[in-house]
Amino acid sequence: MTQLTAEGEQAAPVGRASDVPSPAAPSPARAAVPDASLAIATHGLTKRFGSQVAVNDVDLRVPHGAVYGFLGPNGSGKTTTIRMLLGLIEPTAGSRSLLGMAIPQQATIALHRVGSLVEGPAFHPYLSGRANLERLDAADVLADPRTTRVRIGTALERVGLTAAAGKRYRAYSLGMRQRLAIAAALLAPRDLLVLDEPTNGLDPQGTREVRSLIGSLASDGTTVFVSSHLLAEVEQICSHLGVMRDGRLVAQGTASEVRGGGTVSLHLVTAQPEEAAAVLTALGVQSVIADVGEVRGIPGELEPEAIVAALVRAGVGVRSFTASSPSLEDLFVSLTGEGFDVSG
To answer: Where is the ABC transporter domain (predicted)?
Structure first.
């Protein structure tokens, strides 16, 4: 495994100890048998730093071939979870497996099939991009030195850094440094790629390039686990989502399942808002609110066609009618109580 981390990382405090339920003590009964059907699986994964709980009883389920978006505000436990998955820190309780192999028991085998970028790239500033990759590859005891040049060239080309391969790392922009880190994670064929904020510092064009790269990796069968704070990015590339809050996993599933967990709302534009509100209330629409030129409510199990038909029968003019699930941003706010960056 190629592993890149920033120096001096410390876990962010997650509230007072009294505010967070104490995790269960480690126990053989809580140990989970590795699930070969999942690329990443955890059972009761917990990490405490003194009296503070950074990650609390997390059960991740990441299917093979998925692009899994790992979401959460700063300090929610995302990076600590990733560091436990990769064996960089030991959990206080719980178990984890990668590619059906238990960590740390089978880490040597499993991690060779995993590429990762955690927190930020760290390279030798006075070496070129290519020379940095050569040093990393030489440190991998399982890498074949006979194919080093070809593999490095392929990785650099895949992230768009071939032309800058001979330039010193200290002269790289932040976006170029991020792409070089991804290239380092691709020096060998990977079944699983774990990326912590892979588009950090990238301009819109660079973000699109990384998004396209993740899509191409997924289409080749690689499972991608990506922690991100950009909802627009996550919406476009992720097939599965997990949302963290205060160290807990508060939602998980396919993107449609997670988004489908929110309440559908309706928005009616009409010149007769009071009359429309009366009809909707009589139909059983909940939380009806009439305003100038519009009415909002929660239809529950009522079909949109039936609602519109009832309005027309009552003589209410319908200029537009929309029934929609909450956006990913709305869902995130409802799950975590915090705003989120929606820029791409």
So the answer is: 40-271
